[in-house]
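Researcher: Structure prediction, please.
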Amino acid sequence: MDERAQVVIRGRCACGKRFRIRNAQPGTIVTCPHCRRTISISDADLRIAAAGGRLVPLQPEQADALEGILLDKAELRTAAKGSQAGLTGRTELTHEEAALAAALHGGARLPPHTAWGGAAQSADALAPQPKQVPRLFLTDLLASYYFAGQRRNALVLLAVSLACSLPFLGLELLPYVWDLLMAFSIAGIAIGVAFAIVCVVAVVLASAYVLQFCWRILAMTAGGDDEIPVHQASWSVWHDVIAPLFWVTAITCVCAMPAALLRTYGPPLGPLTTLLIVGALALGSFFWPVALMSYCVGGSIVYARPDWLLRCAVAIGPTYVLAWLQAMLAAGALIGFTQMATAVSRWPLVARLAYIVGGAFLTLYLGYVLFRTLGLLYRHFSHRFPWQL
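Model: Predicted structure follows.
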């Protein structure tokens, strides 16, 4: 059997769906089940996939060819939206669609005659027209506080927060339920244990969903979509929960490390030492938004290299300070709100339940503002970055 038949092609469609195609051959055509774009597999794509590269299809946005052969539909799984047209191997273009899309992005020259009907048209004539006038960066930044002006987003956030608060409400009511079930002897104890296990599992799942929800907001905002996603038809625990959690924690620790080292190994606390610690913390937090955005959109820690992050911040310019301040404001409010948990434990039951429901909404709201702010950095300034996806 041809060795290339064993290659698994991984990547993302331009609409954001992550795909995984097995047993592809050069010339194979698949159709994205979400946006109906056609994805042509070339020999160059197979070589890139064999080397471990992830592909993003080069397809013109105005292409209206919707027919194709779908390979291994069960292998397709959902990814956060945010990918842009382009292949990891832009230097080798082996089909007309790739050549056209690369020409629209300034990466290749169109042949004199194409399959699009006779003489090649200009890139300006073929480029899709925007459906609406885009917001300025500052306007888009402020729009995060009122759900980008979409009532649906507020309703979705409210529904998601109510659903996610239910497991925590169950945990809060667990002692009262346990005391009630103890009156039923062994059967009551068994039911109480089962209820506790269900509550704990539900809390873990709800927490994973909230992380994936916020991570998806970042990616979709970076891709130009302002609608808050409700769910993904299919998502990977590793790619959409474990990896984001690990890298958010790792990037945060790296950014906070200079301040922590000064605090631990620096001179005794004094006005100068305190000033140095605050300065180191501010410097580390300054690169936190662009580092997190780079990893989420790029899908690799390679895009969070310190030299690239510095170049990205410089390329964005003074407006990056506004995004940094808003991100720090949202993150600080989120941290401060979670610190209230110890005081809330002494409140009456009704107050604690109201705090859980209201806290779930406030947590998701602050997470929405924070992660949408990070996504806006890529949406508005990706053309200035030293790296292209």
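Model: The chain has two domains: 1-111+122-129, 138-384.
Researcher: Thanks, that helps.
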